Amino acid sequence: QKWTESESKWISLTEELRVDLESSRRHGEKTEAELRDEKKCTEELDDALQRAIYGHARIIEHYVELQELYNDLLERHRGVMGGIAEVKRAAARAGKKGCGTAFAAALAAELSTVRIDREKERAQLREQNRRLRVQLRDTAEAVHAAGELLVRLREAEEASTQEKV
User: Fold this and answer.
1) Which of 17, 99, 133, 161 is most buried by a 10 A CB count?
2) Phi then psi for 3, rounded to 5 degrees?
3) In the predicted model, what is the mean pLDDT of the chain?
C-alpha cells in the first residue's frame, strides 16, 4: 500500500512537472514570437525613419537650390536698379550742362535699348519667379508630407512602446 501511495505521489509530481514544463515551453514560444514581432516592427520603423531622413535631405538640398536662384535674381534686380539710377544721374547731369539735342538723342537710344533689355529680363524674371513659386509650393507640400510621416512614425513608435508594457 505504501508502494502504491509513493507511486501515486510520483505520478502526480511527474504529471505536475510535465504540465509546468509544457506551460513554460508555451510561454517561451510566446515570448520568442513577441520578440520576433518587436524586432520586425523596429526594423520597419528604422526603415521608415531612414526614408524620412533621406526625404528631408532631398528637401533641404532643393531648398538650397531655390535659395541660390533667389540670390541670383536679387543680384540681377540690384544690377538693373543700379543701371536705372545711373541713367537718371546722367540725364540730370546733362540737363544741368545743357548739352542739348545730341545728348537727348543718345539718351533716347540708350533708354530704348535699356527698355528692351529690361522687358526681356522682366519676362525672364517673371517666368523664373513662376517656376520658383511652383517649386516652393512643391517643396512646402513635400515638407508637410514628411512632417506627417514623422508624426505617424512617432505614433507608431509610441504604440509599439506601449505594447511592450
Assistant:
1) 99
2) -60, -40
3) 85
